[in-house]
Amino acid sequence: MAAGTWKIYAKAKKYIGAGTITLGAGVFKMQLHRASASAAILVLSTRSTNASIPGEISATGGYVAGGRNLLPATAQWTVGASAKSYKFTYSTVGLIFTASSASLSNIKYALIRNSTGAGAGKVLCFCTLSTAAFTVTSPNTLTITPAATGVFTLT
User: Fold this and answer.
1) What is the pLDDT of residues 17-51, one digit of tens each?
2) Using DSSP, how many helices (H) and how many strands (E) does the chain show?
3) Vertex 45, ends 42 and 49: CA angle to 5°?
4) Could you please report the per-residue DSSP string of 10-60?
5) How many domains does the structure of the chain reveal?
6) In a domain, 1, yes or no
7) What does residue 135 show for φ and ψ, rounded to 5 degrees?
């Protein structure tokens, strides 16, 4: 399944510039969100906190509320295509969500946040995983792998 591009929240750009979010430091988590999150998750201009975006999928079937740590947990901030660009990325093997004993239902979006506690933190970016909601049935997996160019690049 081909996911859409990662879209960065406007306030995340401000927080990166001000040092409130430090890329490559702290803990970053990826959450899965339902189609019902559309009204909030798609608003790039005003969303800033994880609490401002409802619609995370249910904590069932091996999915833990608040999502999973990126690998490495700090993610990576490395030189991009040129010495003047840097890319934010995580493990090239991707992040794997396994449906165990129950399905992971009604998934449409993935969201990355800077975690400051259980379910807390600033939202960084999101991507649309599919045009329609889908379910991962037990014992299948959903792997979200970053592009070779990273989640996003700053030049």
Assistant:
1) 999 999 888 899 999 999 999 999 999 999 999 99
2) 2, 11
3) 80
4) HHHHHHHHHTSS-TTSSEEEEEEEEGGGHHHHT-TTT--BGGG---BPPS-
5) 1
6) no
7) -125, 140
